[in-house]
Amino acid sequence: MRTLGLLLAVTAVLAGCASRSPGGADTAAPGGSASGTASVAASAPASAGTPAASPRSVQPVPTVSLPTGLPKTREPEPPTDDFPQVTTRGRIRVEGQCVDLVTDSVTWTLLGPDAAKLRDGQQVKVVGVPNPEARTVCTGSPLTPQTVTPV
């Protein structure tokens, strides 16, 4: 008996949903009885709407203007990062791809094409700029030589 009551309640709810028109007005279910079913009121009035926007309230769309011509560019310069130029003398040590300048106080790893021309054991004077941002597998402090002179 309890199941039959639940089934009738569910059927009544479904019949109420099926009898609603898309505009929100209730219509009578064909062959349905009004006894035992509750009418469902519309949740929002059908004629409710938003007021039309006045021409003054419309904001103009901003425009973007691009400059004509190409931007001015310069050739990139090697970074100096406020490091003073270094002048040092020492002996070249070549180990694998590393070309080191061994001095009395510091071992410099020489970078660039000038370093590739040096031979192991050669005594040289190097003028260059430290480059601590350079990534290398060598153990010396990176130095970008500007001039390399055999002594």
Automatic annotation (TrEMBL):
- Region (Disordered) residue ranges read 19-90
Ranges annotated as biased composition (Polar residues): 56-66
Q: Which UniProt keywords apply?
A: Signal
Membrane-crossing residue ranges in chain numbering = none
Q: Where is the composition biased (Low complexity)?
A: 19-55
Signal peptide as annotated in the record = 1-15
Protein name from the UniProt record: DUF5666 domain-containing protein
